[in-house]
Fold these 4 entries.
Entry 1:
Amino acid sequence: MVNAFNEERINQIVWRQYPEFQGVRPMVQHANINSSSASASQSASIRSENKHTILLYQAYVRLPNGKSMSRWVRVSLKQDGSIAKISSSK
């Protein structure tokens, strides 16, 4: 779960790693991710459903030719609010 304190802490981490996103507030999404350590032949009852929160940051950056490009940073959070993964796109 993302509370205001946790979101601000994550914002600081994103802004430090990606300065062009300074001041950008994320869109919050919740996703159910089915995970399984079982093989396909084992029972589906072993599978567990995890709820993850995803924070999406979007910014537009200027390119040397004068055009702008959309950039995204995606932060996947575990159920306890800690960061599972940070990825960016160009």
Entry 2:
Amino acid sequence: MNNIQLSGKVMEMPVIKTNENGNTYANVTIAAKRTFKNFQGEFETDIVIVRFWKRMAEELCEELTDDAYIEIKGRIQSMVNERNGVTYYNYMIVGESFNIVSP
């Protein structure tokens, strides 16, 4: 099963874009704190970019405000590319739903 859940503070507001196939999307950047402390006893934060597609992207752009705290459910999507005989694996987090916890 390919499920991912993230929650964090919005760091960069999403903007609707259109790809070469005419599909709309928006990327939202969040700061998600890790659930464990490092050797210095502090929680580290990961900066994560999540892509939303079509209507969900439009709703995200309409409803989200600066400095909001958001919960996201989605999946990891893998892409395989080959260049000059070398295989590259890239991963993207695709958002499937969201909940704005605070404005």
Entry 3:
Amino acid sequence: MPGTPPGATKAQPLTQAERADLPPSPAAGRRRLDSSELFGDAQEIEIVHRQQVYRLRRTALDKLILTK
């Protein structure tokens, strides 16, 4: 896969059955997003919070790192 580090796999969106197996969100008003919905084919995204830019990066071991 282009742009994917060696050994990493591309995350696939959860199926409806897999989503049903997740525990419900514990608080009203909380949103749950699958990381594949955020990243698509990218390895890194930028999130703006209070006029500050944060980077959310997917590592070669498919972990997430958030940096300012």
Entry 4:
Amino acid sequence: MSKMEQAFYQFKLGHDYPFPIIDLEAARKTASNTFWNLRKHTLNRSVTNSKSIK
């Protein structure tokens, strides 16, 4: 909610409603890195396995 919307509705984040518990940007970045590393590891394993089969 923007500052303008908060003023319009006479609402103050952190006073009328608690601040978010989770930092969404940090959580998104962590999840993205986790999935990318998993995918990279899985792709490397499949490439290694396909080379050893030949």
